[in-house]
Design goal:
The structure holds 2 protein chains of 2 kinds.
Chain A lengths: L1 H5 L4 H133 L5 H14 L1
Helix pairs in contact in A: 2-3
Chain B lengths: L2 H12 L9 E5 L2 E4 H22 L8 H45 L9 E2 L2 E2 L8 H30 L6 H42 L6 H29 L8
Antiparallel strand pairs in B: 1-2, 3-4
Helix pairs in contact in B: 2-3, 3-6, 4-5, 4-6, 5-6
Classes of the chains: A mainly alpha, B mainly alpha.
Subcellular location (chain A): Cell membrane; Endomembrane system
Family (chain A): Belongs to the ATPase B chain family.
GO cellular component, one term (chain A): proton-transporting ATP synthase complex
């Protein structure tokens, strides 16, 4: 043990250094390793969570984009359908109105014709009514003498029978 | 020339540079206070203050000292984790990390100006902690004792004894060799650290006594590297011993 003496080994000093080390171990464990490892773990968890969140957000964005496109396409189709329908409806309305107009015109023409007919009939009757007297009057003027009452009646009857 | 004179002469000649035992500064109730012990306390104070500063206002977004310590601790923790596994890391990491920080800070603080030059009652007031075998041997003993305590704890007494003693004569011999190896570990751990740092001190003192300006600078750089490497070596060896001894002995054929 001569060598230990040469190196100045002293059990008390050895013990002191061991105690030093244990104190340091205790303090550092409590005030350095624990908080730092805790914060590292916390950060690791946080990063994990945010990465997961980012993934979810990306997925949702993709879904939303798809949804948006789908809705857009549907709307486009719908509008095209509506446009077509309205075109057809327009054409139909036009045709219907044309038909109606034609019918109205035809009806008006018929009515006019009828009116004309009745008017003509009336005028004819009127003319016939007065024709006897007129003929008689003309005859009287031409012959220069008045006609007898029964002669007048005969003429009027004959005129009436003309038609 | 008589040999006594020669030895005296040599001792006198080398005294200012090479003194193996630490100088005793004084006694407190018969308890010797050496300059290396004083430096050990200073080192502890520095580490504790710095770690308090680092974790004083701990934030999720790190900055400054916290970031530095996070980097070191994260690296060491990953290393321990890879070697020791999940369960043992919790126990082994603080021990191993404390060895590293204590030795590293002690080595670096030992390089500061004022060491070996400030005198107190004719003795240097400060001396690099690990240039005293007391300190390194204490660390090595702590390391070894902790290793065996955890081996006992994790293996149980039967498995632990099986590591050294078996009925198979060949393995019994191997086991005995390993038992001797356990004592060698203590010696190698303590003397490696002591030798490196002590040699560094001597080199620096010698170079400084030749020419004190600029010339010692490369040696200071060298000592910074040595200080780091020795701390890392001590830490890694302790870790390996802890892991090896707390594992079950490989099945014998």
């Amino acid at each position: 043990m001569e060598i230990l003496k040469q190196f100045g080994i002293n059990p008390v000093l050895l013990a002191a250094q061991v105690v030093n080390f244990l104190i340091l171990l205790f303090i550092l464990k409590k005030f350095l390793y624990k908080p730092i490892l805790k914060v590292l773990e916390e950060r690791r968890k946080k990063i994990e969570v945010s990465l997961k969140n980012a993934e979810a957000i990306e997925k949702r964005l993709l879904e939303a984009n798809q949804e948006y496109e789908k809705i857009l396409n549907e709307a486009l189709e719908e509008s095209r359908k509506i446009l077509n329908q309205s075109k057809e409806a327009g054409i139909q309305i036009m045709e219907e109105s044309k038909e109606t107009a034609a019918r109205i015109i035809q009806k008006a023409t018929e009515q006019a014709l009828e009116v004309k007919k009745t008017e003509t009939g009336k005028i004819e009757q009127e003319v016939r009514k007065h024709l006897g007297a007129l003929i008689v009057l003309a005859f009287e003027k031409v012959a220069g003498k008045a006609m007898k009452k029964d002669q007048k009646a005969i003429i009027e009857r004959e005129v009436k029978n003309l038609s | 020339m008589d040999p006594d004179f020669r030895r005296d002469d040599r001792r006198k000649h080398m005294e200012h540079a090479i003194v193996l035992p630490p100088e005793i500064l004084g006694y407190i109730k018969g308890f010797p206070i050496t300059n290396t012990l004083l430096v050990a306390w200073i080192t502890m104070a520095v580490i504790i203050v710095i770690s308090f500063l680092a974790t004083w206002k701990i934030k999720l977004v790190p900055s400054g000292l916290q970031g530095l310590f996070e980097m070191v601790i994260d690296f060491a923790h990953t290393t321990v984790y890879e070697l020791a596994g999940d369960k043992k890391t919790k126990v082994f990491f603080p021990i191993v990390m404390t060895f590293f920080l204590f030795i590293l800070f002690a080595n670096f603080i030992g390089l500061l100006p004022g060491f070996a030059t400030i005198k107190f009652h004719g003795e240097p007031l400060l001396r690099s902690m690990n240039s005293d075998l007391n300190m390194t041997l204490a660390l090595a003993l702590t390391s070894a004792v902790l290793t065996h305590i955890f081996a006992l704890y994790y293996l149980g007494i039967v498995e632990y004894l099986k590591k050294w003693f078996t009925l198979n004569p060949i393995f019994l011999f191997v086991g005995l060799l390993e038992l001797v190896g356990e004592f060698t570990k203590i010696v190698s751990l303590s003397f490696r650290l002591f030798g490196n740092i002590f040699a560094g001190e001597v080199v620096l003192a010698t170079i400084s006594s030749i020419f004190a300006f600029v010339v010692p600078l490369p040696f200071y750089f060298l000592e910074i590297i040595v200080g780091f490497v020795q701390a890392a070596v001590f830490m890694m060896l302790t870790l390996v011993f802890l892991v090896l001894l707390s594992e079950k002995h490989a099945a014998e054929h």
